[in-house]
């Protein structure tokens, strides 16, 4: 590797597309949390959460450079395997951004939010990337907590506490993670197999993975109704949660009943793509519901 990474290479290390969805969930949690937040402070807070998420991505690429080099054409084109950046550059970049984002968030809002962001980065890098990812097919189940913490961070940035509402939002993202990533693993299992990563389809087989995707999808659809049932969302959110949840279960059922490998891979890809929009639409519905309630529209 030659190093000398350019600006666009450092941006690629942040995994912006991967982190954008969880940053959005943090933003929604900030906007629906009671009490409100100064707009400038809010912008600083969401920037810190985004930077912290990017720092996690850079540290993930630093540690996973060896498997990225053999996993797929997509991962081989990342800055480190392609030789556009060194592991040392990625490590330094990730550490600097981690310290900066946590410190600034703590100073700008409160240290509950700062501490949660620090724990999120630690969990993703150490617990998931360094330990679980290469050791157990339950890697994405336990490790998925890292992607579920941002709503709690956003909520804490406004309130200074971990409210039960933010725990519910955490739970939704946590339960969404296994069917989302296992659907990806079903049609990308050759890539994971080449890298030696024990994803569920490679270890337990396709049939078991499809059953677990369906079970998690049913539980997720039920958990998606909790904001309505617990009283911090209204009928707009409820209607969206019903439709999107049933659609998720229906796609998971189609996957479960897929008669052959070709149909299975096509359906898995469809479910994976849908799961991306599911989380976005659900959280957008929660935000819309909250705004409508505060404006007295509903």
TrEMBL record:
Enzyme Commission number(s) from the entry: 2.5.1.141
Subcellular location: Cell membrane
Membrane-spanning parts: 18-37, 43-63, 84-105, 111-132, 139-158, 164-187, 208-229, 235-256, 276-297
Lineage top rank: taxon: Bacteria
Keywords: Cell membrane, Heme biosynthesis, Membrane, Transferase, Transmembrane, Transmembrane helix
CDD domains: PT_UbiA_Cox10
Protein name as annotated: Protoheme IX farnesyltransferase
């Amino acid at each position: 590797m030659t190093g000398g990474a350019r600006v666009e290479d450092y941006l690629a290390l942040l995994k912006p597309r991967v982190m954008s969805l969880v940053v959005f969930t943090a933003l929604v949690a900030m906007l629906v949390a009671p009490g409100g937040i100064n707009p400038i402070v809010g912008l600083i807070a969401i920037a810190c959460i985004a930077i912290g998420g990017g720092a996690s991505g850079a540290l993930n690429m630093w540690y996973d450079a060896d498997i990225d080099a053999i996993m797929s054409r997509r991962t081989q084109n990342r800055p480190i395997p392609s030789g556009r950046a060194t592991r040392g550059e990625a490590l330094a970049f990730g550490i600097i951004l981690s310290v900066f984002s946590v410190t600034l968030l703590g100073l700008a809002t409160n240290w509950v939010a700062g501490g949660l962001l620090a724990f999120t980065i630690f969990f993703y890098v150490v617990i998931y990337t360094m330990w679980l990812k290469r050791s157990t097919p339950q890697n994405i189940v336990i490790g998925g907590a890292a992607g579920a913490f941002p709503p709690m961070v956003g909520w804490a940035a406004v309130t200074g506490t971990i409210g039960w509402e933010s725990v519910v939002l955490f739970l939704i993202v946590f339960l969404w993670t296994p069917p989302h990533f296992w659907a990806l693993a079903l049609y990308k299992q050759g890539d994971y197999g080449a890298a030696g990563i024990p994803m569920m389809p490679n270890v337990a087989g396709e049939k078991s993975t499809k059953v677990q995707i369906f079970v998690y999808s049913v539980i997720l659809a039920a958990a998606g109704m909790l904001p309505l049932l617990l009283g911090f969302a209204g009928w707009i959110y409820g209607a969206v949660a019903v439709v999107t949840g049933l659609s998720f279960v229906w796609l998971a059922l189609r996957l479960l009943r897929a008669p052959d490998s070709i149909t299975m891979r096509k359906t898995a890809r469809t479910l994976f793509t849908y799961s991306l929009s599911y989380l976005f639409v659900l959280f957008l519905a929660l935000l819309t519901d909250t705004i409508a309630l505060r404006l007295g529209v509903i």
